[in-house]
Automatic annotation (TrEMBL):
<protein>
    <submittedName>
        <fullName>Uncharacterized protein</fullName>
    </submittedName>
</protein>
<keyword id="KW-0539">Nucleus</keyword>
<dbReference type="InterPro" id="IPR017930">
    <property type="entry name" value="Myb_dom"/>
</dbReference>
<feature type="domain" description="Myb-like">
    <location>
        <begin position="9"/>
        <end position="62"/>
    </location>
</feature>
<keyword id="KW-0238">DNA-binding</keyword>
<feature type="domain" description="HTH myb-type">
    <location>
        <begin position="9"/>
        <end position="62"/>
    </location>
</feature>
<keyword id="KW-0677">Repeat</keyword>
<dbReference type="InterPro" id="IPR001005">
    <property type="entry name" value="SANT/Myb"/>
</dbReference>
<feature type="domain" description="Myb-like">
    <location>
        <begin position="63"/>
        <end position="113"/>
    </location>
</feature>
<keyword id="KW-0804">Transcription</keyword>
<dbReference type="GO" id="GO:0005634">
    <property type="term" value="C:nucleus"/>
</dbReference>
<feature type="domain" description="HTH myb-type">
    <location>
        <begin position="63"/>
        <end position="117"/>
    </location>
</feature>
<dbReference type="Pfam" id="PF00249">
    <property type="entry name" value="Myb_DNA-binding"/>
</dbReference>
<keyword id="KW-0805">Transcription regulation</keyword>
<dbReference type="InterPro" id="IPR009057">
    <property type="entry name" value="Homeodomain-like_sf"/>
</dbReference>
<dbReference type="GO" id="GO:0003677">
    <property type="term" value="F:DNA binding"/>
</dbReference>
Amino acid sequence: MGRAPCCDKANVKKGPWSPEEDAALKAYIEKNGTGGNWIALPQKIGLKRCGKSCRLRWLNYLRPNIKHGGFTEEEDNIICNLYISIGSRWSIIAAQLPGRTDNDIKNYWNTRLKKKLLGRRKQSNFNAKDTNNGIEENSYSNALSSSALERLQLHMQLQSLQNPFSFYNNPALWPKLHPFQEKIIQSLQSLNDGSNPVVQDALPSPHVEQGQKDEFINKPQHDGAKIHSPQVQLLENIPLSNSGVPFVASESNNNPMHSSLAPRAAAVEQTNNVGFQQLGALQTELDDILNNRTMGYMPQEDHQMAEFDCFREINGSKDSLIWWSNDSDTRSASSNSWDSSTTPALLTQGMFQDYELGYNL
DNA sequence: AAGCAGTCCAACCGCCGCGAT
DNA sequence: AATCGCGGCGGTTGGACTGCT
């Protein structure tokens, strides 16, 4: 069943706002507030606009203390680091940058920051070597560790956990384990019916109390938005470094995931054998890129598109290159690495957090 | 000066989650 | 429990602007 449109589209004006419309909307909201009903707002004001359009105009342009353009290096860092950590959650990223709107940040990322990051990367030996068929896993690992951007790219794929069809949520895509390991996991799962407190304790549990959760979820963001996703809690629980990058837990002994998924995780880690312990180095290199300390980068602008093509080529070669794995039983080629749903190479401590996150959802 | 391509960004679109009924 | 309406969000679009040939 289709949803009724939020407004009469035939009688609604579209396109750029006139100064008169802006003034009317701004004056009304400053005087009366939104009244908790954006849909009814334009009628009250006498604007031939969709309520959603009014809301957007207010939030992105008319609202007081909005900053446009002129992003600082610090803001660049925060945006990039948060993007690496949580993906395209623009509203959350915007919440960390007072005066910035999600739309602004999204545009800024898409038009400038992404290019700033990707564009400076030399078409490195990673590409030169790995576009050949039959990648040898160790050489892949070496190339990977030499390139913060590829790691950045992979780390972004970690965010695909949010996708219910992702690798992590789809056991069919998981690498084969030793039968004994499978048995252990099955035993744990069968015991996890809530009746066994021991196992229950060992399995992941929400890491905030309900009260705290509600408090956070209802906490208004800078633009009045509410955060719905519990994943935000994870972000909130990740301390930021000076440059804004969330720290990834280096010790996971207290992580309940380890008691329940350790066998599989260990096996998976072994299967893939791709070192990813260098998130710190990633951060350093990211800082270098953002601050134009571009050791090893090609400064020439004419390399930029070639570097984009590098990724396009990698990601577009659906059949010729399974670039993240040599396990033919478990591969699931990604057609878009920014959005890939499969990244077994990333089996790090951080991933355990994401496992946990997945359970918490 | 004209045409073209690339860039930027405001605004739109459609989906989703949540609360109300 | 099911349905509906709204707010919120992220992806995409289209037009204005800019730079190059």
